[in-house]
Specification:
Number of domains of chain B: 1
Largest interface: A-B, 25 and 17 residues
Radius of gyration of chain B: 12 Å
Oligomer: heterodimer
Order of helices and strands of chain A: EHHEEHEHHEHHHHHHHHHEEEEHHEEEE
Distance between the termini of chain B: 32 Å
Number of domains of chain A: 1
Number of helices of chain A: 16
Number of strands of chain A: 13
CATH architecture of chain A: Orthogonal Bundle
CATH architecture of chain B: Roll
Strand order of the largest sheet of chain B: 2-1-5-3-4
Chain lengths: 403, 107
Amino acid sequence: MSASGFTPSAGVPHMDIDPFSIEFFEDPHPAHEVLREAGPVVWFDKWKVYGVARHAEVHAVLNDPLTFCSSRGVGLSDFAKEKAWRPQSIILEADPPEHARTRAVLSRVLSPTVMKQLRGSFVAAAESRVEALLAKGSFDAIADLAEAYPLSVFPDALGLKPEGRENLLPYASLVFNSFGPPNRLRQDAIERSAPHQAYVAEQCQRENLAPGGFGACIHARADAGDITAAEAPLLVRSLLSAGLDTTVNGIGAAVYCLARFPDQWARLRSDPTLARNAFEEAVRFESPVQTFFRTTTRDVEISGSRIGEGEKILMFLAAANRDPRRWDRPDEYDVTRKTSGHVGYGSGIHMCVGQLVARLEGEAVLSALAKRVSTIEITGPATRRFNNTLRGLESLPVSIKAA
Amino acid sequence: MPTIIFNRPDNRSERVDASAGDSVMQVATTHGVDEIVAECGGNAMCATCHVYVDERWIARLAPMSEEEDELLHGVAAERLPNSRLSCQIKITPELDGLVVRLPDRQI
């Protein structure tokens, strides 16, 4: 709810769009353009929140964490007024200076050096997955590739037990639905959440995490004194919340792009070293994570609009990633684009700490496809999966042929 | 306006006018110096904006943070004593004429 009594500051355009409706999720791009062109800051009548949809303003909000805080929740719910639905995250929902300590732990566990060690096994798993799909010929690119591949590498890298992994995607979907308003998607997810929450709480404990995995490495930082023993399970939980569904939707987005834009697929096939950039461009183009909120800690002015203390601001990462003020031909998927500066992983101190894992997975899959597959044909209707924060498909029937 | 000199792996050299306050990474990416990838956009997370700073300049830069030092362990090309992440080098008027060599790969 708005701290200023349900009305925005003078001059801020009112939007009667609900950015969390199924209608909006069906095709968000025309609405994103309306939001971007309405002004640098807009106001949503339905949810009584401010919004920013241009690249410059989204980037500015992301990079001023003391003014635009995360500790009051990065969803619509304001933790200063409402109890969080689960124990608050000690990294995602934390501010400086406390945030730096927990962030440093995950940065180290998911560092470029660690990625070098994982690269071989992640690439091999992608290659064998693509071989198996070539043998099949026709399959669902979401279930059989975008989900199956991350599920085949990430839980093992984390050190999870084989039992109960079917809870991982429902839990992640719950977390990302929970950032939205109290709509049907959020309410249904929370009502069904008990078994998934119980599973995750259990797997975060030290005794359930295999030696050498990300989870065990986090617990080892507690031995080193960087975090407390009670904090370690909560940081493992962050990886379980944000480490899987995001890459599922990223890989799904990339395959969907390459299947829809044959010229870009041809370009990638002619130079498979473009795989990593083709994935990155898909993250810009589709923005698997569409939005996040911040809360103002003081009265502040954004591009001429005054915003009071205690206001929620909705950042449209996806709209910023197609802002014509920042990007040439923003609505074109271009595997050779210079993508640096997109906000698909956020920006600033909270920028996705697992971004290197995501890129490694995406590169491995697209590189294996580019080397072994000649054509990707969509053979049935692509159906959408709806979530308050994530954008992706439920199903994408395709058939592929060997190169 | 400070000038930064980028020496490419094939020995071609590029002189670029820079604005004080920008990072060397920003200067490179806005002037088509493609050897700088900068996947994370300057947030000191990805180690894909690696440069070798000319020996005559290295001591004149602000010292690196612990985070930068750790990230440099993960760079794709060989790490040398003069390795730095260009997103962590802020341009000041004193850095006019700074020379950096670009590695042959970032990933």
